[in-house]
Design goal:
By secondary structure, the chain is mainly α. It has 11 helices and 4 strands; from the N terminus they run αααβααααααββαβα. It has 2 domains: 233 residues, Cation efflux protein transmembrane domain (Alpha-lytic protease prodomain-like); 75 residues, Cation efflux protein, cytoplasmic domain (Alpha-Beta Plaits, 2-Layer Sandwich), CATH 3.30.70. α3 runs antiparallel to α7 and α7 packs antiparallel against α8.
Length: 317
């Protein structure tokens, strides 16, 4: 067979991973805002000799680094989308970026909790007005970042397609979720800090500051745990949701003659899946015909169908 005839059976493995996503653009904007705030706080801390401003500036720097990992994952996935060394494209880079972000969140939660417990055991003097100013400023900046990234998250959740029930995590951009949780964690820290500082300043409840730190670290740890679970399931090729598997079986077996004997469905990127399906029938259809039974709305972009014919002995049985 001539090579030009074979080409029609080849297909692309980029699965739209070469396109710039809204999540990438929004993350870059947030990195810019975070970096500016970081520089302002570090400079102010040095000029005014404020440890509170310096500490918050360094805290911003850690989150700028975490968000930079998110941005790198987007750019790497896009630029390597056509790299043939990746069997199913670079969709899983998204989950890897999210997993890395979740690990950093977990580290942040542990450090936050450890520092809070130390403060609880060994209270330090708080310069209230300056600390409250830093916390409010941080809340304003983080609030803006939450809005920028959160708007995109909600846009994903309310997609008009009707098939989201089958995907389990339809439109789940894990990389964007990691960035979103980082800025949410920052905003939460600012809110708890303002509450604690006001309680300490006006009611003398100095212990509220470290206690709110512990509360914040527990919440951040829970978010991190959830994101670690969802991203690791993608990275480890966990089977897709039961609802999606059931829908595929239902479509394959609709003629009454075909039976699905083996089914593997796993995520290879945000909202996209690969599937290996083995079927047996008395009068089987062609693999191509079986593939056409699956609507594109289910998100299966790479499907392999293995067809078996019932033997005479099996028919008799």
């Amino acid at each position: 067979m001539h090579s030009h005839n074979i080409q029609q059976w080849h297909h692309d493995h980029t699965f739209a991973q070469d396109r710039r996503t809204p999540g990438e653009s929004r993350t870059l904007i947030v990195i810019g805002i975070t970096a500016i705030m970081m520089v302002v706080e570090l400079m102010a801390g040095v000029l005014f000799g404020s440890m509170a401003l310096l500490a918050d500036g360094l805290h911003m720097a850690s989150h700028a680094a975490a968000l930079s990992i998110t941005a790198f994952a987007y750019v790497y996935a896009r630029r390597n989308a056509r790299n043939s060394q990746y069997s199913f494209g670079t969709g899983k880079v998204n989950a890897l970026g999210g997993f890395t972000g979740a690990v950093l969140l977990a580290i942040f939660a542990v450090l936050m909790g450890f520092e809070s417990i130390l403060r609880l055991l060994n209270p330090v003097e708080i310069v209230f007005n300056q600390a409250i100013f830093v916390a409010v400023l941080g809340l304003v900046v983080n609030g803006a970042c939450v809005f920028i990234l959160g708007f995109e998250n909600h846009g994903h959740e309310h997609h008009p397609h009707h098939d989201h029930e089958y995907g389990g995590h339809h439109r789940q951009d894990h990389n964007l979720k990691a960035a979103y949780l980082h800025v949410i964690a920052d905003a939460l820290t600012s809110v708890l800090a303002i509450f604690a500082l006001l309680a300490a300043k006006y009611f003398g409840l100095i212990w509220m500051d470290p206690v709110m730190g512990v509360v914040g670290s527990v919440l951040v740890a829970r978010w991190s745990y959830g994101l670690l679970g969802s991203t690791s399931s993608v990275l480890l090729d966990r089977q897709a949701s039961e609802s999606l598997q059931s829908k595929i079986r239902e479509l394959m077996q609709a003629d009454g003659d075909t039976r699905v004997t083996d089914l593997h469905v796993w995520s290879i990127g945000p909202e996209i899946y690969s599937a290996q399906i083995a079927v047996v029938a008395h009068n089987p259809l062609s693999p191509t015909k079986y593939k056409t039974l699956i609507p594109s709305s289910l998100g299966l972009v790479h499907v392999t169908v293995e067809v078996h014919v019932c033997s005479i002995q099996e028919r008799a049985a």
